[in-house]
């Protein structure tokens, strides 16, 4: 909040937003690329669908990183759905994923519904390179993700396209082997994003034998168990991959 001179405007970096009149104090820096809209509009006059965290341009599901990383993420997202995806790069270098055309190829209802839900959501999903080589999901607003506040939450996914979950300490399959295609790992994390959008994240942990830890008896998050069963394995089936060994809850 910029309260100099008593103006009480919000500083978005590129522009100042005046909540009293629900408009910007100066024109959109990207107005030449968006000529159909007023240069003073906010989120294309549709704030229920878009967000504009930096005053530059609305975003839905975006990918940040190197050109090669964006291309790999795009390719892996496309593998999850039979609906054609397109990748648009904004002036700030971030990539936005959108649907285009009609579905083709073999049906992938679970993956297609998941990706389309995230694209259509009013919440932002950010995919970026993993900082430690593993895949992770963190929520923009944990309280909203858990349903303690209304509206659900967006999330940031740290994704490693080279992580196949194999090796001795890898992800266990039902047949005792380890490993899965990288896009399955991405789908798994998007399953956690969906939980946050729906406000159904929980901190509940249960005692279970974990196949990924040599069937050790341990505490596992109910969220993780639900995603493995309801998202991970159905996506594996669509991808022609081996089913994942599931925890046994006591």
List the topology elements.
Blueprint: E1 10-11, E2 16-18, E3 23-24, E4 61-63, H1 67-80, E5 85-89, E6 95-99, H2 109-120, E7 125-129, E8 136-139, H3 142-145, E9 155-159, H4 182-197, E10 205-210, E11 216-221, H5 222-239, E12 248-249
Helix pairs in contact: 1-4, 2-4, 4-5
What does this 3D model show about the protein?
The chain has a domain of 141 residues. It is 26% helix and 19% strand. The model has no long low-confidence stretch (mean pLDDT 87). The protein contains five helices and twelve strands. It is globular. The termini are far apart. With 250 residues, it is of the alpha+beta class. InterPro entries: Effector_pro_NleD-like (IPR028208), Rhs_assc_core (IPR022385). This is RHS repeat-associated core domain-containing protein.
List descriptors.
three-stranded antiparallel sheet; 250 residues; single chain; alpha+beta; six-stranded mixed sheet
> What's the helical proportion of residues?
25-40%
Cα shape: globular
What is the mean pLDDT? 87
Q: H/E series, N to C?
A: EEEEHEEHEEHEHEEHE
Radius of gyration: 20 Å
Structural class: alpha+beta
The span between the termini is 51 Å
DSSP E strands, number? 12
Query: Count the helices. How many?
Result: 5
Largest sheet report = 6 strands, mixed
- Main sheet: which strands, in order across? 5-6-4-7-9-8
Which parts are unreliable, with pLDDT below 50 for 5 consecutive residues or more? Answer: none
Into which percentage range does the β-strand content fall?
Answer: 15-25%
């Amino acid at each position: 909040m910029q309260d100099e001179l008593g103006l009480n405007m919000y500083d978005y970096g590129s522009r100042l937003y005046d909540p009293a009149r629900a408009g910007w104090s100066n024109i959109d820096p990207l107005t030449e690329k968006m000529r159909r809209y007023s240069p003073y509009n906010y989120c294309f006059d549709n704030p229920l669908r878009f967000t504009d965290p930096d005053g530059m341009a609305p975003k839905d599901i975006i990918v940040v990183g190197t050109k090669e990383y964006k291309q790999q993420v795009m390719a892996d997202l496309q593998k999850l759905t039979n609906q054609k995806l397109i990748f648009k790069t904004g002036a700030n270098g971030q990539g936005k994923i959108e649907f285009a055309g009609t579905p083709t190829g073999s049906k992938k209802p679970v993956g297609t519904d998941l990706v389309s839900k995230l694209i259509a959501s009013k919440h932002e999903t950010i995919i970026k390179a993993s900082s430690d080589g593993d895949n992770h999901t963190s929520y923009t607003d944990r309280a909203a993700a858990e349903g303690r506040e209304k509206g659900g939450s967006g999330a940031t996914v740290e994704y490693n396209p080279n992580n196949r979950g194999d090796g001795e300490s890898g992800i266990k399959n039902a047949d005792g082997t380890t490993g899965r295609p990288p896009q399955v790992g991405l789908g798994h994390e998007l399953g956690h994003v969906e939980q946050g959008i729906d406000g159904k994240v929980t901190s509940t942990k249960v005692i279970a034998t974990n196949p990924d830890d040599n069937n050790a008896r341990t505490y596992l998050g109910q969220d993780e168990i639900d995603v493995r069963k309801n998202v991970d394995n159905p996506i594996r089936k669509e991808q022609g991959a081996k089913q994942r060994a599931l925890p046994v809850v006591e």
